[in-house]
Amino acid sequence: MKKYIVAPSILTANFLELKSDLDKLKKAKIKWIHYDVMDYNFVPNLSFGPKILSDIVNNYDFKMDLHLMVKIVGFSVEDYLKPFIQKNVKQVTMHYEALNKKQLIDFIKFCKKNNINASLSINPNTEINKIKKYLPNLQNILVMSVNPGFGGQSFIKKSLDKIRLLNEIRNTNNYQYLIQVDGGINEDTYKSVQEAGVDMIVAGSYLVDSKIKNLEERISKLEG
Ligand code: DX5
Ligand code: ZN
């Protein structure tokens, strides 16, 4: 029985080889793909939008885990998110730091209405108590273990305390959210997040890179 859900992030792919990377992940029986959307505003990088998402969902059966590292300016939350609500998009994460209060509430409502997991992420410098009141209404919490924006950065250790704390809060209150971690997961760090009590592990450079020779072995380590 696999203990952890593994969601490879395709941000670290060579985009000219995206098809070959997705084929390898499919062959390795990966169920979830983590799709990082960046806006050159909330984070200093720009990645992909709804078009590449539709090319993926129209050609593969992966469940899509969208990680939106964006601020919403000049749009309602609903209008901004609508183009991303495509076949097999099962979970959408937005950042606590990127949204105002109204946007955050609109986001949770939007997910509920569209039958999608509402997921909130916090950056390494944001404490759990900031999002405490939203926890009963969320299906997933994404603990960023690097500052968002780029693949291949080093794991920030204090994220482990946040994972433990989220576990405690969940147990005490009987909340239902899953705990996800994203950033710097590799050979040296995966065990520590598993032990801290994570449910879903995102990995970019450790799993998505055409040079990797032992993909299935790496996936099975992360799956526990
Ligand atoms: C970073 C992204 C991550 C990234 C992870 O801002 O949210 O999903 O692709 O890459 P690694 O696993 O290489 O840190
Ligand atoms: Zn991500």
From TrEMBL:
<dbReference type="GO" id="GO:0046872">
    <property type="term" value="F:metal ion binding"/>
</dbReference>
<keyword id="KW-0464">Manganese</keyword>
<keyword id="KW-0862">Zinc</keyword>
<keyword id="KW-0413">Isomerase</keyword>
<keyword id="KW-0479">Metal-binding</keyword>
<dbReference type="InterPro" id="IPR026019">
    <property type="entry name" value="Ribul_P_3_epim"/>
</dbReference>
<dbReference type="InterPro" id="IPR000056">
    <property type="entry name" value="Ribul_P_3_epim-like"/>
</dbReference>
<dbReference type="InterPro" id="IPR013785">
    <property type="entry name" value="Aldolase_TIM"/>
</dbReference>
<dbReference type="InterPro" id="IPR011060">
    <property type="entry name" value="RibuloseP-bd_barrel"/>
</dbReference>
<keyword id="KW-0408">Iron</keyword>
<dbReference type="Pfam" id="PF00834">
    <property type="entry name" value="Ribul_P_3_epim"/>
</dbReference>
<dbReference type="GO" id="GO:0005975">
    <property type="term" value="P:carbohydrate metabolic process"/>
</dbReference>
<comment type="subunit">
    <text>Homodimer.</text>
</comment>
<dbReference type="GO" id="GO:0004750">
    <property type="term" value="F:D-ribulose-phosphate 3-epimerase activity"/>
</dbReference>
<dbReference type="GO" id="GO:0006098">
    <property type="term" value="P:pentose-phosphate shunt"/>
</dbReference>
<protein>
    <recommendedName>
        <fullName>Ribulose-phosphate 3-epimerase</fullName>
        <ecNumber>5.1.3.1</ecNumber>
    </recommendedName>
</protein>
<comment type="similarity">
    <text>Belongs to the ribulose-phosphate 3-epimerase family.</text>
</comment>
<keyword id="KW-0119">Carbohydrate metabolism</keyword>
